[in-house]
Amino acid sequence: MTPITQPGDLDALIGRTARGDRAAFRILQAATAPRLFGLCLHVLDDRAEAEVAVFDICLTIWHRAAEHPDSGLDGMTWLTVIARDHLVVRSRAARAARGAPDDLALLADLPAVRSAVGPLGGAAQADAQDRRPRIELCLDRLDPDRAEMLRQVWFDGLTAPEIGQRLGLGPEATRRWLRTSLAHLSRCLGA
Fold first, then answer.
1. What is the per-residue DSSP string for 106-174?
2. Which class for 3: exposed (0-12), middle (13-18), buried (19 or more C-beta within 10 A)?
3. Nearest to 188, CA basis, from 147, 129, 145, 128
4. 87-105: b or e for each residue (b if 16 or more CB lie within 10 Å)?
5. Is 60 exceeded by the pLDDT of residue 118?
6. What is d(CA 10, CA 28) in angstroms, rounded to the nearest whole number?
7. Read out DSSP for 27-38?
8. Can you give the pTM of this predicted structure?
9. Does 127 score more than 50 pLDDT?
10. Element (H, E) at 93
11. pLDDT of residue 8
């Protein structure tokens, strides 16, 4: 197997895969599956589910490889976006099957979250006060500093720059801090 050593190697393999080159796809799969599996395992927290997800993601990559050049993304970023999209759909389908509300969508509609990760749509903040007791319970399980800052985001409309200023963080570090905090909260809300 040819090792992936240059930044453009993944792009070339994706291009060959788009032309139906099965050997290139096997190399691409062997080179990227461990990283995709790690992402899936982190999100799904279940080894068997993560293995199934990686299989599904690889099928999607095979079928959508021709879209890569139009994306403007480097190879690994494009593969990760495919994985993320799959995991979002899978997570929402699982929540819908359980009859669980999409609290992550509620969180994503807040001003600070929108400025950090972009809009996901919906009029979710209108439901915020109705769900406050459940959210407060989950916030109480977080680190006190994270919980207090998320309360200010959720209930007071604090923006990402304001969070960054209060924490002494730059824009990228603020986005990471928000994403990490929201991931912890969403795991609790999904439980």
1. HHHTSHHHHHHH----S-GGGGTTTTHHHHHHHHTTS-HHHHHHHHHHHHH---HHHHHHHHT--HHHH
2. exposed
3. 147
4. beebbeeebeeeeeebbbb
5. no
6. 7
7. HHHHHHHHHHHH
8. 0.52
9. no
10. helix 75-98
11. 77
- Average pLDDT score over residue span 143-162: 74
Query: Is 190 a residue whose pLDDT tops 80?
Result: no
| pLDDT tens by residue, 36-53 | 999 888 888 888 888 999
Which domains can be identified in the chain, with CATH numbers?
A: 9-98 (1.10.1740.10), 103-190 (1.10.10.10)
Cα Rg of the chain (Å, integer): 19
What CA–CA distance (Å, rounded) separates 191 from 176?
A: 23
- State the burial class of residue 125 (Cβ atoms within 10 Å of its Cβ: 0-12, 13-18, 19+): middle
Give CA 118 to chain center in angstroms. 12
What's the confidence (pLDDT) of residue 3? 57
Question: What mean pLDDT comes out for the span 130-141?
Answer: 72
Of 100, 101, 185, the C-alpha closest to 150 is: 185
